[in-house]
């Protein structure tokens, strides 16, 4: 059975439905009080008024939760340098306490790593037709329709009945499909490779390899004062995942998040 997709209509029509001015409704969407999306052309679509929705419901938006930088480091297994980089590049929100302590948004760390730059700027997801999504992200339209049917892909319908899908989720789905095809090379399992040799063979920095080894993504087979021997199978799969994710997301920070998630999935198999 097909999911009951929400219906979105133009801003002016939604404002008239609610008895609000377009300006007031636009303000409410900007603050997350009423759901809204943008079309590829930049037009604002607003969810039709839900049953039981009242203006009282829109008095205040949910407040984000902030934790200290050190707590975020411990909770998410990121280095302080990585988090500061993400803050500087607006990947996550941050604030300072009156004492000068840096705080970061856990909602951003949890969910905003996969958002497009345009979505972070506007706060709204862009929705595009299924056929356009299939061409842009090289995913078959049938796969997308199946994902919509199962509820794994967020979608809406316009007043005309056209189905639109969230662009923020399409890149993630395409990446998930690509990553699902990557598996460790069992012929290399247990084969030692020096750190310096691994950097040259797989075109990856020694800093990344060392950090991944410390995080448990790559097995260390032998360690000495000037020696670090790694499991080549782990090096190959970690590098492949990271490069594929960096290509898809355009960000080494987000690629690192993808790598962490995918390695944990593989280790659980």
Mean of pLDDT = 79
Helix content: 40-55%
Low-confidence residue ranges: 57-61, 112-123
Helix/strand-derived class? alpha+beta
Q: Strand portion, in percent?
A: 15-25%
**Largest sheet, described in full?**
6 strands, mixed
Distance between the termini: 31 Å
Secondary-structure element order, as H and E?
Answer: EHHEEEHHEEHHEHHEEHEHHEEHH
With strands numbered from the N-terminus, the spatial order across the biggest sheet is 2-3-1-8-9-7
Number of helices: 13
Domains, number: 3
Q: Radius of gyration over alpha carbons?
A: 22 Å
Task: Give the total of beta strands.
Answer: 12
Shape: flat
What is the structure about, briefly put?
This protein is of the alpha+beta class and 269 residues long. It has helices at residues 11-18, 22-30, 69-76, 80-88, 106-111, 117-122, 130-137, 141-150, 167-180, 195-202, 206-215, 232-249, 252-268; strands spanning 7-10, 36-38, 44-47, 66-68, 94-96, 102-105, 127-129, 155-158, 163-166, 192-194, 220-224, 227-231.
Identify the notable features of this structure and list them briefly.
269 residues; 13 helices; three-stranded antiparallel beta sheet; Multidrug-efflux Transporter Regulator, Chain: A, Domain 2; alpha+beta; flat; 49% helix; 3 domains
